[in-house]
Amino acid sequence: MDLIANLSLGFGVAFTPINLLYCFIGCVLGTLIGVLPGIGPVATIAMLLPATYALPPVSALIMLAGIYYGAQYGGSTTAILVNLPGESSSVVTCIDGYQMARKGRAGPALAAAGMGSFFAGCVGTLILASFAAPLTELAFKFGPAEYFALMVLGLIGAVVLASGSLLKAIAMIVLGLLLGLIGTDVNSGVARFSFDIPELTDGIGFVVIAMGVFGYGEIISNLSKPDDDREVFTAKVTGLFPTKDDIKKMAPAVLRGTVLGSSLGILPGGGALLSAFAAYALEKKLGTKPGEIPFGQGNIRGVAAPESANNAGSQTSFIPLLTLGIPPNAVMALMVGAMTIHNIQPGPQVMTSNPQLFWGLIASMWIGNAMLIILNLPLIGIWIKLLTVPYRYLFPAIVLFCSIGVFSTNNNTFDVWMVGIFGVVGYLFVKLGCEPAPLLLGFILGPMMEENLRRALLLSRGDWSVFVTRPLSASLLAVGALLLVIVLLPSIKSKREEAFVED
Amino acid sequence: MNIKSQKDFVSGLMFMGIGGFFAWGATAYSLGTGARMGPGYFPLMLGVMMVILGVFITFNSLVIERSGGDKIGKWAYRPLFFIIAANLIFGVCLGGLPSIKLPAMGMIFGIYVLSFVASMAAIGWKVKSTFILATGLAVISYVAFVKILNLQFPVWPAFITG
User: Fold this and answer.
1) CA of A364 to nearest chain B CA: how many angstroms apart?
2) What crossing angle do the helices spanning A166-181 and A437-459 adopt, rounded to 10°?
């Protein structure tokens, strides 16, 4: 069995003391930012990227991955106890989770979220491990036309996922693509849009954009809102263990959430957020048995399903990144950046050229999930205490860590000015209702898309029909077109807007 | 003609402007042909696409009815100014500003300045608690970034360390 041999190689890497330590740090940080509303994995990973320069690549990636799936665990705690989504993917958990807490059942709600996430995380990791090899095989059949088509599909997927207007999301992608082109063109050596500023010939750093738009933009908009009256159910968490009846109800919901989350995570544009929404919608559609608590009033299934789904989705969204080198969402776009920093070109060749890294990362997710369930259930008290820290003490710390992160990227002041500009731009986006996630994805994909488009058309002698005559590329584009059509259908359009209302 | 969505109207104009700028800028580079793309080809294509998207967004904002006019709302000048300023001042503290002969003041000094400037972004900040916060952050940063992660930046003012 290849899989077992590969996994044992992976566990050999992941079980070294240093990697266990960084996995643990990642999980703790992930839970921390998951619990704290107002800071998400994108800003945190961007902040910590520069600090990972000095680490071995495997340890760096293990830690950054831990932040992403750790945040999915932590987010549910805040959703259940404070009725605020600690993470955007926990938005739907608020609905039933908070109602359970109000009825004094915060313990079972937290346990359902934690245990569901753990199960889903294990399954997601297993799927990642078993799908990675065959998909990598497929990836080697990809030519430039296929890569271009796949990126178009990925970007369309990101648009479908964006909450606001479709047109604005597409425009944000294009803006991201254009920003990605700033700097020296690899083919001609021409410095594009650099305005004779030497620092710009290297392009804009994605840390700068991610930090400015996601970090500062959000802090500013959070501060402009009045403080919500938080009602924290701190004292009431007693008796973590769900009753037999709870387990009977949540087990099938966890299973459904896991299946749905794992499949949606693989899709380009998918990931934790989409999975959670879809899982909650499915549970609601399946309805309740007579005598069961209705949804919206504290049904345990409404907590278990989306929490399992978001964790499964966050795990499987690594598949397109690790096998094809294409990031399916903004967090994975940052992982591309992290790999590039360590001189690893993301793509199908990673598995063969860096098997330790590839399988070590996958194995670490298993260990990480085990750490997380311990961090989040028996040690829940620590995180609850954190929720009582007021925002006015948190945001200066976030500003500081962003500033240190930016400065240490290149040790130059120019990046600090740039991040200031993007902070203003990020706030402008918030005010105008333009979602920044598609922009970041476009920014990472910009140079890759141009390069593949260029190569594809060079091979076809300038004939654009190459994208529809090659079967793989044609089917990828067809899926993309289908996605767009589905979203634009009036009946689905209103449903989609409904689903994102609370976002 | 009434603006039905202020947010979309302004974002449409913004996209048109930026798209137009990139498209116009791209014409300065050689375009090449489809088979041999020059450095201007892809940006021009994207720029034009963005202008078209901007036109559609603006058009929709004038035609499609929204509840409440989808207003942009008040700008939060206070947090905007202080947060960005805190970041810029911190950068200056670390790097110094050679153009006005300001020496690098180092990380510890920078953290105190940043904490105070950033705290001013929130209404009702207090000197004492900000000072405690800054001290805590300075200790944590010194241990985490300088001692453990070994990041290279000036910790103390340049005139002390020489």
Assistant:
1) 22
2) 60
Helix axes A330-341, A57-82, angle to 10 degrees: 160
Closest Cβ–Cβ partner in A167, A416, A427 for B60: A167
- CA nearest to A97, candidates A239, A262, A306, A241: A306
β pairing state of A183-184 and A191-192:
antiparallel
A382 touches chain B (CB under 8 A): no
Question: Token digits for A237?
Answer: 């968490």
Q: Of chain A residues 188-207, which have a CB less than 8 A from chain B?
A: 188, 190, 192-193
- B131 at interface of A, judged by CB pairs closer than 8 A: no
Kindly report the nearest CA distance between residue B46 and chain A, in angstroms: 6
pLDDT tens, position by position, for chain A (503 residues)? 577 888 888 888 888 899 999 999 999 988 888 887 767 788 788 878 877 777 888 999 999 999 888 888 888 888 888 777 767 777 788 888 888 888 888 888 888 888 898 999 899 888 888 888 788 887 778 888 888 888 888 788 777 766 667 888 889 989 999 998 888 887 777 788 878 787 778 778 777 888 888 778 878 877 877 655 455 565 556 667 777 888 888 888 999 999 988 888 877 666 677 788 888 888 887 877 777 888 878 888 888 998 899 888 888 888 888 888 888 778 888 888 888 888 888 888 888 888 888 888 889 988 998 998 888 888 888 887 777 777 778 788 888 888 887 777 667 778 888 888 898 998 898 888 888 878 888 888 888 888 888 888 888 888 888 888 888 889 888 988 888 887 777 666 665 555 554 43
Enter the pTM of the model. Answer: 0.79
How many residue pairs bridge chain A and chain B with CB atoms within 8 Å of each other?
199
What residues of chain A lie within 8 A of the CB of B30, using their CB? 188, 190
Positive or negative, the Cα torsion across A430, A434, A438, A441? negative
Interface contact flag, B95 A407, Cβ < 8 Å? yes
Query: For chain A, which residues make up each domain, given as ranges?
Result: 2-499
